[in-house]
Amino acid sequence: MRHFSVTQLNDYLSRVEKSPVLLDVRELWEYDICHLKDASLIPMGQLPNRVEELNKDEETVVICHHGVRSLQVCYFLTSAGFTNLINLSGGLAAWALDIDKDMATY
Questions:
Q1: 48 Cβ partners below 8 Å, 6+ apart?
Q2: Please, what is the end-to-end C-alpha distance for the chain in angstroms?
Q3: What is the pLDDT of residue 19?
Q4: Does the annotation count 64 as an active-site position?
Q5: Which of 18, 49, 73, 83 is the most buried (most CB within 10 A)?
Q6: What pairs with residue 62 in β-bridges?
Q7: 57: number of CA atoms within 13 Å, CB side?
Q8: Model pTM?
Q9: Is the Cβ–Cβ distance between 91 and 67 less than 8 Å?
Q10: Domains recognised in the chain with CATH numbers
Q11: Chain centroid to CA 78
Q12: Residue 61 phi, psi dihedral angles, 5° rounding
């Protein structure tokens, strides 16, 4: 598992040919307030029952509000055989603060 700051992820997304899967693990009400474009939502509590929807080999960025739930999800996915994970440190709160100042916050 790798850890990216929001600045690192923003730079990375601007230069990769194939974007990674953006997996948002927050609740639907949080996602409805703000999310990254092209992010897929699977709330953390639903993930054990929906993990088969994800490709273990595909590069996946795990996103939450502050980076705590996403880190826990990364540990879970690692134990499930995922090998190409990136935890977004600071989460969307940091993204709104440092990258997209127009993003809604909560």
A1: 76
A2: 28
A3: 95
A4: yes
A5: 73
A6: 23, 87
A7: 0
A8: 0.96
A9: yes
A10: 2-98 (3.40.250.10)
A11: 14
A12: -100, 125
Tokens of 32: 């409805």
Tokens of 52: 């088969």
Catalytic member of 23, 64, 74, 85: 64
pLDDT in the model for residue 55: 97
Instruction: Give 26-71 pLDDT, tens digit per residue.
Output: 999 999 999 999 999 999 999 999 999 999 999 999 999 999 999 9
Closest by Cα among 36, 43, 19, 25 to 94: 36
E-state strands within 1-106: 2-4, 21-24, 40-41, 60-63, 85-88
Angle of helix 6-15 versus helix 91-98 axis, rounded to 10: 80
